[in-house]
Design a protein that fits this description.
13-stranded antiparallel β-sheet; three-stranded antiparallel β-sheet; 4 helices; 18 strands; disordered C terminus
Length: about 325
């Protein structure tokens, strides 16, 4: 079975592999920093009053992967984030993507249309959730946005001089993290960061080049149905124009559709059988197939009736 990977999971896995000799590759904040997004706090880095210097992390880049947490409430089109995330500026998360990865409404992915200036923050999404989120709903929020409104800053660099508070694990960075439309974005509990010694864009751009070079999956028919007038693309004005059936009803398949593949669904009635013929949409078919014949050498074809349909199983 194919295994699906998100771009974020690839980013994390490759960072962990590439920088495994470093002391720190990824950490999650556990306290709220400054409202202007210029401090990030990692309790795991705190050393009391000794054991490390305040320049330990100077010139280190930090890249905001995502925010994570457990919801504290929900509505049809809203979800209330964790209290410890802090008081976020109004609409700073606008156009970000929120995914519910566990609990009620798991599997939902929505675009954020607004968020409140409150603690806890209430997020409104572009379309209703499949189920109302509850306190069992675990969420992930990924920075993203529209070119018209977004001036997101998700990469910041620790100051060269004394950026690290030894006793608390706070790191001062510049520039501060920004959300939608350039609004300052507080880094509360649950901000997951990657640590880089060089600019994160070098790593991210390499992944982008690799992903752009991947070929999309191609689907081939499991069954092949040949009709006389070459309407095998299942794109006539009506199904009845080119297909008929005996003891079955015909309909286009509207549920099982993947990457442009569509099907003709034949449903048995009284004592009949059923088959499904699959085809690629016209635009995808044109980009993947060239007929093995010319217009003058095309082989003769005969229409098959539903009672004597020949099919090839792959």
């Amino acid at each position: 079975m194919p295994v699906a990977f998100t771009r974020d999971s690839i980013l994390l896995a490759l960072a962990q592999e590439a920088f495994n000799e470093h002391d720190i590759v990824d950490l999650t904040t556990d306290s709220a920093g400054a409202a202007d997004g210029t401090t990030v706090i990692f309790g795991e880095l705190a050393h009391g009053s000794s054991g490390i210097t305040d320049t330990a992390f100077h010139d280190v880049y930090m890249y905001l992967r995502r925010f994570t947490g457990l919801a504290t409430a929900g509505g049809a089109s809203t979800i209330t984030l964790r209290t410890s995330m802090g008081t976020l500026a109004a609409d700073v998360l606008k156009n970000f993507t929120i995914k519910i990865t566990a609990g009620t409404s798991s599997g939902d992915e929505r675009t954020i249309s607004a968020n409140s200036n409150a603690n806890p923050t209430v997020v409104t999404v572009s379309s209703a959730f499949s189920s109302t989120p509850t306190t069992s709903s675990y969420y992930e929020i990924y920075p993203s946005g529209s070119s018209a409104s977004s001036q997101i800053i998700r990469t910041a660099k620790a100051l060269t001089t004394s950026p690290f508070a030894v006793s608390t694990g706070a790191i001062t960075v510049a520039p501060g993290f920004n959300g939608d439309a350039g609004a300052n974005m507080l880094m509360g509990v649950g901000a997951e960061m990657l640590f880089y010694r060089d600019r994160p864009n070098l790593h991210i751009n390499s992944i982008n080049r690799l992903l752009r070079g991947l070929a999309p999956p191609t689907f081939f028919p499991l069954s092949l149905h040949i009709v006389a007038n070459d309407a095998n693309d299942m794109e006539p004005s009506t199904i009845a124009t080119d297909y008929n059936s005996t003891a079955a009803t015909l309909a286009t398949e509207s549920t099982i559709v993947k990457n442009g593949v569509q099907s003709l669904k034949s449903t048995a009635t009284a004592g009949g059988g059923s088959r499904t013929w699959t085809r690629l949409s016209a635009s995808r078919r044109a980009s993947h197939f060239t007929p093995p014949w010319t217009a003058t050498s095309r082989p003769a074809m005969t229409r098959s009736s539903a009672s004597s349909t020949s099919s090839t199983r792959g």
